[in-house]
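Hi L.,

As promised, Vps16 C-terminal domain-containing protein:
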Amino acid sequence: MSKTLRVLNAVRSPETGIPLSIHQYKLLTPSVLIGRLVNAHQHLLALRISDYLGMNQEVVIMHWACSKLTVSSAVPDVTLLEILLDKLKLCRSISYAAVAAHADQSGRRKLAAMLVEHEPLSSKQVPLLLGIGEEDTALTKATESGDTDLVYLVLFHIWQKRPALELFGMIQARPIARDLFIRYARCYKHEFLKDFFLSTGQLHDVAYLLWKESWELAKNPMASRGSPLHTPRMKLIEKAQNLFAETKEHVFESKAAEEHARLLRMQHELEVSTKQPIFVDSSISDTIRTCIVLGNHRAALRVKTEFKVKDESLTN
């Protein structure tokens, strides 16, 4: 009862002017009274009563901070930041992101960026950084948080807002963001991934993508029509072979791609000459065996000679 009387005496003062009986106070509840004080810009009294009654001070401090931003248009950002932080630190649960959002709405984007730096929750910090155009900082905070959903949120935002080369430059120095981008693009955006690998000089990775696409085309009957020298599959394999040849570290892959292209050409020719669609995409050994089964020993010898197949390889 003594606490109630002290609160009622405080709000009855001429400066506040809220005369309440004990019955009215109980019906109104302390939280509603605090709300009225806040709306009347009696922040100091509201803060003292909240502290006295052991109530959460977040509502009071938040309202004060937003009000301070509104009436302090002439105060420099750095000075106002110090004033705000001095009071915001009184409440551990305060949302710095919410105050920063109000600063941005008030036309204080630089101050908003400084305020959001103090937001401890990445889930609140990152979206606001994106909202105020701080994509680079948002990407840094997202990767530091280790939250893949946040990283993807930033990546997709930048993807839509900035040129591709800017995105590539931003993720190249951030392994987590780069790896997540590659994982997504490998599944859904092959062309975009090829552009990324080309921009970073990873020609062998582009070659692997092209080679993979050639195998995917094998599932499409239309891709095998036409001259063996000009099918889409053949063009992809040849491009892959040329890209592998650009680096000394991928001589094996270059030779393998070149051999694959030669084998496909021969298999195409065999299917045309025999009118049997059974050669393409079989192994060298199986190609030779099929020729023998069909009685085409000359073709079998040609394949054996072309790919330098040893006799013991055919008997295994």
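Residues 201-260 form one domain.

Thanks again for sending the construct details.

K.
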